[in-house]
Amino acid sequence: MKLEKIDILDFNENVFKIIGKDYALLAAGDLKHHNAMTIGWGGLGFLWRKNVSMVFVKPTRYTYDFTEASDTYSINFFTPEDKEIISVFGSKSGRDCDKDAICNMEPIMLDGAIAYANARLVIVCKKIYHHDFDEALVPEDVKNMYYKDQKFHRVYYGEVISIYQAK
């Protein structure tokens, strides 16, 4: 399969399913130095007259440094048969191993962002804003479930500049 650019307005996937149920990989960096991690939180919407994505990264994650240093990032979606990829990228750190090699991933550049040729769908984004979760505003039950380490997420907003689908 080959990734082909589609018109953003032709995108018709169920975001609740592909992000919340199937998960995805957030990738940032360049061909020489990059990292990706599994994400299960995120969103797509419209802000400041732009099509945008929202991704959430804790500062303890290795991908955080790459996302901070990059102007772009990509959100890469895979088939249900690729669940091992999602598992490896969600359980291992790029600080300690080469996840691309373990999963036979093929990193490529798409419109200035690192992405994966193995993906069935890639959303390429240019960062336009970020903010950190405010601990005082996070509900106690959520803190108890997700933030026992007291490390709160940074939310990155990216303008969707292109979408690629496998054909």
Task: Characterise the protein shown here.
The protein is an alpha+beta fold and 167 residues long. The chain has a single domain, classed as Roll (Pnp Oxidase, Chain A), CATH 2.30.110.10. The chain has five helices and ten strands, in the order E-H-E-E-E-E-H-E-H-H-E-E-E-H-E. It has helices spanning 15-20, 62-69, 83-91, 99-102, 140-146; strands at residues 3-6, 24-29, 34-39, 42-47, 50-57, 72-77, 107-110, 113-116, 121-132, 154-166. The longest helix is centred in the middle third of the chain and has 9 residues, at 83-91. It starts with a strand and ends with a strand.
Number of distinct beta strands: 10
How does the helix and strand content classify structurally?
Answer: alpha+beta
| Amino-to-carboxy terminus distance | 6 Å
Low-pLDDT residue spans: none
Rg over C-alpha atoms, rounded to the nearest angstrom: 15 Å
Query: Would you state the CATH class?
Result: Mainly Beta
Oligomer: single chain
Question: From the coordinates shown, what is the CATH architecture?
Answer: Roll
H/E element string?
A: EHEEEEHEHHEEEHE
Strand content: 35-45%
Task: Report the CATH topology name.
Answer: Pnp Oxidase, Chain A
Helix content: 10-25%
